[in-house]
Amino acid sequence: MPDQLDVVAIVGSLRRGSFTRRLVVALSGIAPASMRIEIAEIRGLPLYDQDADDAPPAPWVEFRARVRRADAVLFATPEYNRSVPGALKNAVDVGSRPYGKSVWSGKPAAIISASPGAIGAFGANHHLRQSLVFLDMPTMQQPEAYVGRVDKLVDESGRVTDAATRDFLAGFVTAFERWARSARSAVG
């Protein structure tokens, strides 16, 4: 069996009962044994301010170190006003700085978006993709993952309650592992 793939998950919602967080917990339980998904908390990240680059706050340092150690990144986002939540954008900015020292560069990534609405945060998913292109993060293109009606599909403990959704998520996470390993070996 190959080494366990270390995936850091960035969850865009800060809400305690977040549907997006529940979805990541579900993915962690569905993921193959050869893949480990761990959430990197973003709640305590101070807003990015270039003036702090010379003496970065401890939460920035810890966050950057965790992402740097990861083999791949899973972004999980709800949709706020057809875009990503401010906390997620801040985490992206914190990891991308100081200029020339981005922890994102070259890291294989995938995006999954979720919403109680029907379109599954499609707008946020694609808005985030634009940033990942600039950050030089090879991002899995297929399968796309927009989980609409997530509030009816994943319970409070992070258990998928719908068999078809569970099968889809298993396929998504398996494809991500396969793709991330391939992307990593292509980079070096």
What would a concise description of this structure say?
The protein is of the alpha/beta class and 188 residues long. The chain has helices at 19-30, 58-69, 86-96, 122-134, 150-153, 163-187; strands at 5-11, 35-39, 72-77, 109-115, 146-148.
Strand content: 5-15%
Number of domains: 1
**Low-confidence residue ranges:** none
Task: Specify the CATH class.
Answer: Alpha Beta
What name is given to the CATH topology? Rossmann fold
Mean pLDDT: 94
Q: Main beta sheet: strand number and arrangement?
A: 5 strands, parallel
Count of DSSP H/I helices:
6
- The rounded Rg comes to 16 Å
Give the strand line-up of the largest sheet.
2-1-3-4-5
Output the structural class: alpha/beta
What's the shape?
globular
CATH architecture: 3-Layer(aba) Sandwich
Order of helices and strands: EHEHEHEHEHH
How many beta-strand runs? 5
Q: Report how far apart the termini are.
A: 20 Å
Q: For this structure, what is the CATH homologous superfamily?
A: Flavodoxin domain
Description:
This protein has 188 residues and is an alpha/beta fold. The chain has helices spanning 19-30, 58-69, 86-96, 122-134, 150-153, 163-187; strands at residues 5-11, 35-39, 72-77, 109-115, 146-148. A five-stranded parallel β-sheet has the order 2-1-3-4-5, sandwiched between helices. The longest helix has 25 residues, at 163-187. The radius of gyration is 16 Å and the shape is globular. The two termini are 20 Å apart. 38% of the residues are buried.
Topology:
Blueprint: E1 5-11, H1 19-30, E2 35-39, H2 58-69, E3 72-77, H3 86-96, E4 109-115, H4 122-134, E5 146-148, H5 150-153, H6 163-187
Parallel strand pairs: 1-2, 1-3, 3-4, 4-5
